[in-house]
Amino acid sequence: MESTIDLIESRLPEMSKGHKAIANYIIEKYDQAAYMTAAKLGEETGVSESTVVRFTTELGFEGYPHFQSALKEELKSKLTSVQRLNYTDRFADDTTAVRDVIRGDMENLKETLASLDDEAMAAAVKTILGARKIYIMGLRASSPLSSFMHFYMTLLFDDVIHIHSNSTNEVFEQIMPITSDDVMIGISFPRYSQRTINSMEYAKKKGAKIIVITDKDDTAMTENADVKLFAKSGMASFVDSLAAPLSLINALLVTLGMHRKEHIMSSFEALETMWSQYRVYEVGRDRNNGLGEEYS
After folding, report:
1. pTM of the full structure
2. CATH code for the domain of 168
């Protein structure tokens, strides 16, 4: 798919003087332009707000908000860490930053729920339940997501492998035994991990089923996917906003748990005995009688 910047560059020679001013500004400062109002962009480029709006519609967008949304989406994969850090300049103060980040997470959750594909979720559950081994992979910023998923999946299934490594060779050593009876769950959000993409390609060639958890379709992350689960991610400065992906993984785990209730019950009974014996969890004191109370 042609990116917004590529589209602008391809149309540049045929543009009017005013539209060229807008185009050149966006090409040079797309990380700033993506968060400007149409009026502000017009002010920066010396044209009217209506000219900015016409510029976006002539590119094929429904309007300025549609264009701005597309540009923001591309920023997530284009910006370097340093550029992301400069993104905080848009916040007026600490309070604004805190509220804006939380508000962004809430919007991502709403969009994820609104666009949730029930059939894809059902297919993911069926695929995982029917697998011999389950491989889970999420690197870099997605590593906490894969770790969280692996922790709970080991309670649900006996053979779950968490792929994590700093070396490409070690990654392939871990997935080398994968077969057509297995499933691989690949997790990545912009900027997408090339090692995760390569590993899914390898697993696909070995005949394994591929489940992808990512932000959108038609990317390198979804090329080899049998099942695609999408969650809206965001960019809160140098930190990735992954509240919605975590919620999606929660939903998948709970749904799987409904099908593995007996297995979970026996696992928890054994674990509770061990936890109690070795005092895994903190024991608090009841203020009234001083007796210990275990917290989980």
Report:
1. 0.69
2. 3.40.50.10490
